[in-house]
Amino acid sequence: MSEAVLDDATLVRVEEVLRAACGLTLAHSLRRSLETALARAAEEQGLEPAVFLRQLLLRESTAVEGFIDHAVIGETYFFRHPEHLRTLARLATAHEGPFFHVWSAGCASGEEPYSISMALLAAGVPEGRFRVLATDVSGRALQRARDGAYGPWSMRRIEPELEKRFLAARGDQLSVVPQVRRTVDFRRHNLVMDPPPAGGLAAIFCRNVLIYFPQEVVREVLARFIASLAPGGLLFVSPAEVPLTNGLGLETVDAEGSVALRLPHPEWTRPAAPAAARPPERPRPAPPPRRSAPVAPAAPNVVVAPPAPPRAEPLSLLERAPATPESLRRALEAARSGRFEEAEALAREAAKGLVPEAYLLLAMVAEGRGDLNGAVEAVRKALYLEPQLALGHATLVALYGRMDRREDAERARQNALRALDGLDDEHPLRGVEAMTAGGLRQALVPRPQAGWQGAR
């Protein structure tokens, strides 16, 4: 198809069709991918590109559906974010109800729902005790998912024992075994236009989908997810999408260093009684060691994201409404004054809003009391929320250095340098200490260093 047919103005009109049909909005740099999708859809329907384009712009249903099939298929693979799957498996094994129902929303070519089923079966959940509903707006993607045959690229992260158990050779591909297929139901569904396909769900997976929607659509889709979850149910989104859930009353749950979101039980969110009316929980010794938050739905010790005012304008992935800025400011003041217990409590309050800087401060406090593993865990949470947080990677350089994990320290140093790519030396960096990009580059020059001071 020639550039004369798909000029910028025409591409905008094509994108408007896509957005009206399924809510999808592409970044400006990705608009040209619609040109390829349009050409392939026209070829599939046996039409000249110009004829297909006219039908598409007139929003004829056959053209629109064919175009969607080629425009929205996402790249995926088996056992992507395996920490999410392990967290789900722990929830399932503790589940006391009669049935465990999971929804894979935007399942693309099927690797995610099949991975969910494999993870549950591998954890010992009986085949008859769970069901995975897998939905997508693309009929072409669903056809491939139902076929269940995949090449090596889809298998690049699966563990050999799981591949041997759940996949069988089919020519030069691997096919999902019948036991797994029986647990997954594929259905066409539009996240923007259609009502939720099920309710009372134990978990919903919707990863790397929300980032393509405008902010107002994101909130609508998330509201439908919340309405579909059972109390205590988990929502899994990609790291870049976690901030988009801010202010919806979901609890954050540790998922092996990443984040899952949980719909609280009503009794978990009741206001606490005044201190004078409550019996003391225990005498006040030194704080216990930090542990990962449990995922079983009976545990009320969770983090609740505070409500945030609605925003009419689009919200950038790198922009977050500050959750509790006053708590973070007071936490920093307490830390600088040596009041570390107070700083930790305030930082945990600030972390309820998924603020990466709060987790960096928690890492500082943990390191100060000698808990290096706890410090690493806190930094990993900050980086889960903001993968390009240069000071987070630099902090890991120092921590891994103290732990004599030289390969990990070097990997973190390279990640920090990559996060600084393209930034001017005077560019201020996000973190809990004032630092410029140039200053951090100098600090990252290899030399003997230890602790937090070495990362500065």
Summarize the SSE layout with pairings.
Elements: H1 8-22, H2 33-44, H3 49-57, H4 61-71, H5 82-94, E1 100-105, H6 111-122, E2 130-136, H7 139-147, E3 149-150, H8 160-166, E4 167-170, E5 173-176, H9 178-181, E6 184-188, E7 201-205, H10 215-228, E8 229-236, E9 251-255, E10 258-262, E11 303-304, H11 325-336, H12 340-351, H13 356-368, H14 372-385, H15 390-402, H16 406-420, H17 437-443, H18 451-454
Parallel strand pairs: 1-2, 1-7, 2-6, 7-8
Antiparallel strand pairs: 3-5, 4-5, 8-10, 9-10, 9-11
Helix pairs in contact: 1-4, 2-3, 2-4, 3-4, 5-6, 11-12, 11-13, 12-13, 13-14, 14-15, 15-16
Give a quick account of the main beta sheet: strands, pairing sense, barrel closure.
8 strands, mixed
Helical amount among residues, as a percent range?
Answer: 40-55%
C-alpha-based Rg, rounded:
24 Å
Arithmetic mean of pLDDT: 79
According to DSSP, the number of beta strands is 11
SSE topology string: HHHHHEHEHEHEEHEEHEEEEHHHHHHHH
CATH architecture of the largest domain: 3-Layer(aba) Sandwich
